[in-house]
Amino acid sequence: MTIMLLAACQFMLAACFHEDMPPAPVERVQVGDPLPAMELLMNDSTWVTTESLRGRWVVLVLFSVKCGDCRRALPEVQRFYDRQPLNDSTAVLAVSRAEGDSLVAPFWHELSLTFPYSAQTDDHIYRLFADRIVPRIYIANPQGFVVHTFDDTHMPSAELLLDAIK
What domains appear along the chain, each with residue ranges and CATH number? Predict the structure, then answer.
């Protein structure tokens, strides 16, 4: 009787814990997928589209100013950006998740970041890629296909980013 009661309690507790666990994140863009169609107004007032990125390596960072992991990852992206030759072979850009320029600009200044960003007031662009978790980094080849992805569990160093685009 005691064993049956313990087994029943274990089953009920497991069911309760399972209900409280969030579902796994939805990954809408994975290695091998094309970059989704998008238009981004950048902080320098230029427009970037998926089509305008063709022919270049793309390092796309999705971030939030409220994210501690983003604070650690973005300086590595900056180190990568600083080591890039001044040509059109690689595009490095960041996209905020539902945070406008009034939040992003001071954050960018505080971290001494100089690579381009697009301050999005909603999460439309972010949701083209996933439903949660930042930072996310996508590397696409010149043909526009994603060849590497990174998230908060495995953030790349500047050196790893350099190796990824070789």
Answer: 28-164 (3.40.30.10)
